[in-house]
Amino acid sequence: MTRFPVLARLFAASREALPREAQVRLLLMRAALVLGELLFILLAWIILHARLPLAALGTLLLLHLLLDGVAWARMRSGGTPPLEVALHLASDAGLIAALVFLTGGFANPFISLLLVPLILAAVTLPTRYVWAMAFWVGGLYTLLMDHYRQLALQVSAEVAVDLHLRGMWLNFLLTAVLVASFAGRLAAALRRRDAQLADAREARLRDEQLFALGVQAAAAAHDLATPLASLRLTLDDLRRDYAGDDELEAPLTLLAEQSARMQQVLARLGDAARARGARDGPREPTGAWLARVVEHWGLLRPEAQARLEVAADLPARSHDSGLEAVLLTLLNNAADASPAAIAVHARQEAGGLLIEVLDRGPGLAAETGKSGWGVGLDLARATLARLGGDLELADRPDGGACARLRLPAEATP
């Protein structure tokens, strides 16, 4: 098999089961086809008083139902590959041809039902099976032109022609309903799948960009560790040497504080890298966790002030370092807009966690237009998507902006 890769791919594709949704719709359409056959027999027998071989026709209907039952059982047991579906549809066409053979052959207006298995194959199976089904159906129609059993109707020739035309009309309507219902549902399913594929492609491109950014950030953090350590040692030496110098003590202290802040940022990056892949951490009360995050942020942004309001009924959750980075990004954005009027609210909503970061700045139009890398919110949304949550930004009615962070209960830290 490995010497013929094309044949190997065809064999593998023939064994791969169709999507369950497509199989269910296909079975429903085949069941509707059996119902149409039964209605046709009842119409010819009761209304037209035709002499029909009811025993043979009933046996064919039972075989058709049995075949549908086998297909249903196969779907329940794990799925039906395209080759097997094609064989089922070919058997449907053969049973329809047998029914038509017993009821007038090609003169029977319901011979057009042979197109239904072909149409189902065309919208469900690969092209090679569709062409095989087309040759099979065409061959059955050709045979029925010369081999069939006459349908005896107790009416005049003129009435028979009129009944034939009306039968063609009824058959057309029945076929149109079957095709429209199946093809319409299938088209809707294809549109949903295309939308999902488009979303998946967009998410993949976004993840690739964020991954590249993360690699660059990790490399930068690694490269900065050594010079930052040298800088801190040099600043410590300078502060000892100029301990009594009033002119240099304040700027040296500021530089030492800023280098300590950079060291904390690098340490947090290192902790996040070591914890990658670990979604669940120790559980702790949500209020205590938020208070710790806001306190840590306050050390990094001493010029800003944030008020924390946490509902008393919030359950304990597991910690996630990525969510902490998201909150720090939102708090930094709020601090850039209005450092003295920041509020953080947390409460339960629809069984999950809702965290709001509010500011009194000029609003989203002005805040999102400020200079910067422009990747903070993209990283935040990617992190929340990984946790099953989302981020919503909106202007506040009385001025300022609101960032709403929602997380489902099962994915919140």
Brief characterization of the structure:
The protein is of the alpha+beta class and 413 residues long. The protein folds into three domains: 5-154, no CATH class; 202-274, Helix Hairpins (Orthogonal Bundle); 283-411, Heat Shock Protein 90 (2-Layer Sandwich).
Briefly note the structural class of the backbone.
alpha+beta
Tally of structural domains = 3
Radius of gyration: 36 Å
Strands of the largest sheet, in order across it? 2-4-5-7-6
Characterize the structure shown.
The chain has 413 residues and is an alpha+beta fold. The protein folds into three domains: 5-154, no CATH class; 202-274, Helix Hairpins, CATH 1.10.287; 283-411, Histidine kinase-like ATPase, C-terminal domain (Heat Shock Protein 90), CATH 3.30.565.10. It has twelve helices and seven strands. The strands form two sheets. Strands 2-4-5-7-6 form a five-stranded mixed beta sheet. A two-stranded antiparallel ribbon has the order 1-3. Strand 6 and strand 7 form a beta hairpin.
